Each structure stands twice: as structure tokens, then as C-alpha cells.
Amino acid sequence: MTVPCVRVPASAGEETRQALVDVGVVDHGHDIVADDGVLYIPVTDSAAVPAEYELVDHDVPSRRQQRTPADLLGSEPSYERLGDIVILDEDDPERARTIADAVMESDVRAETVVNRASKIQGELRVRDWEVLVGQNTETLHREYGYEFLLDISSVYFSPRLATERHRVVEQVEAGEHVFDMFAGVGPFAVPFADAGADVVAADLNEVAVEYLRQNAERNGVSDRLTAIHGDVTEVGREHENWATRIVMNLPHSADEFLDTAVAVAGDDCVIHYYDIQHEDDPFGPGERAIRAAAEPEYEVTVVNERVVRSYAPHEYNVCLDVRLSRRPE
């Protein structure tokens, strides 16, 4: 039967499927079809599909009925998947355990189910988890053709940012010098290196840096990626005037490291600056902070302003892509 589908490369299939699930348009009555490296993901409402995706009509078979957690619960629970871990965010412990049982009884592929037990906390940006099913909090996550091994109990990782990471990665060209200031397990740094850039990736979390090195090896980019455990301010002093591109993915406090970013920037450098701000002025505080740190040494041009996602009521996680061009002396 011919139905509307989103067409994507197979390497981006899981991330795209999850993004479409998040907006509620995946057609669960038909199978996802693979054809010559391309996936066709059936959708229920073409008008509601985000504009970034390609829509086509394609012949896909009706899907055999699979049991979902919603089938067993009678309502749609909220959860996300990271590798073979299902992550819940429930305040009611009893409901969390009920959902966990439904996940395991359903056709969802999962080895572990956890519930968030704290907010992100501390310099290392980790949170506490209540393990409801299983024991292993280490998992292998696949994103746009790359593999990332990580342990959610000791590192920060958000699968919801996959599309945003891919947007930035697509801008990187071979030969660039990229400085990832808060690299984690490498979801920016590894694809940057695969694109042909020379990458320096720093993080204060020693466990994350060890995973980063493993992930660089796993994805075949160790020769172009230098992973450094340490304070990014100290690391930056060793790479002044070096970078053509800098990623500052540390919302809430990236502004504290803008002096380091400016010192690392070469004559022409793009900064991807992540921030969390109120909806009344989501981009202004970040732009003003960047200008205060970079001017008058650099001409500052805001190339792009992007709302990445809603973070809290009336607050957005945003990104400013900003070009710094050094003014002649």
C-alpha cells in the first residue's frame, strides 16, 4: 500500500524515527522499509512532519500487530531509548515500576529500564538513576552511523540532541581545526574527526574521556582526535589561535568560558554556543556575552540562531552559530 513516508539514509534511521515519534506522526500500522541504503518511515500526518525531513509516497506493507507499552497500560507512557536502555522520568515510583514492567512485556527491545532520580548535577554533569529492571547502565548507542559506548551512571549524554549534533557536523570540512570544549563521550568530536577535521576534545569527567578515546577507536578516527582530560581553561592555553571551529555545549554556564574560546579562536572561527534562556529573549544574552568577550579584537557576526528544544516552561535550549573574524591591527 502506498502511504506518505519520510525518506532518510539508513544511517540516520533510528534518530529520525525517534524524532518523528516525539512529534507523534509515526504510522505504527505499516512497516519501515529499507531499500538500497535508504529507509522509508511511514507517517500519519504529512503536514505535521518537521520541514527538515523529505516526504515521499512509497509502497510499504501493513505491519503485524506488535505489543507496545501503551497497549498494556491503556495510555501512552513517556520514555526515551538510549541503546538498550529505556529511560523514564516519573515522579511516582509506583507508576515508574508499572511502566517498566509494561516495557519489558512489550515488543520494545530493552535490557535495562531506569527512572531519573535527580537532576543533572555537579561539574561532571551526571545524574542519579533508579534501576527498575536489569543491572547494566552501560550501553552502546548508535547515531547517524556512529557508535558510542557510555555508562549513563557516570557520564552525561542526551539522545534528544542527535539532530542538532548532525546539523553542526554537516558544516565541518576536511582540514578544519575543531576544539570541542565539553566533549563528553564524543558525539560531536567523533563525527568531526570522521569529516576530516583535526579535533581537540576536552572534558573534566575522566570517565567520559576514557569512553571518548574508546569511541574514537571504535569509529576509526583516533588518528585525528586528541582527547584530553582536564580543565578546558588549561587545555585552551595550549591551543591559542588554533581553532577554525569551537563547540561550547554547556548550557547554563558556557558564558564563563568565552574568554578561553576567544583565546583558542584563530583568525576566522565559527563558535557553536549553546545556552538556556527565557522565551522572551532566548538569543540576546548569548550574543551580548560573545560580543563582550570578542570585540573589538574580532568582528562578530551571528550566522544562525536556532531553538534546539524546549527546556522548561518558558525556557529554551538554543544555539547561536557565530563567526569571529579577526580585525587587522
UniProtKB/TrEMBL annotation:
Keywords: Cytoplasm, Methyltransferase, S-adenosyl-L-methionine, Transferase, tRNA processing. The keyword Transmembrane helix does not apply. GO terms for molecular function: tRNA methyltransferase activity. Residues 79-326 form the SAM-dependent methyltransferase TRM5/TYW2-type domain. InterPro entries: MeTrfase_TRM5/TYW2, SAM-dependent_MTases_sf, TRM5-TYW2-like_MTfase, TRM5/TYW2-like_N, Trm5a/b_N. GO terms for biological process: tRNA N1-guanine methylation. The keyword Methyltransferase applies. GO terms for cellular component: cytoplasm. Gene3D superfamilies: 3.30.70.2580, Met-10+ protein-like domains, Vaccinia Virus protein VP39. PANTHER family: TRNA (GUANINE(37)-N1)-METHYLTRANSFERASE (PTHR23245:SF36), TRNA METHYLTRANSFERASE (PTHR23245). This is tRNA (Guanine-N1)-methyltransferase. It comes from Haloprofundus marisrubri.
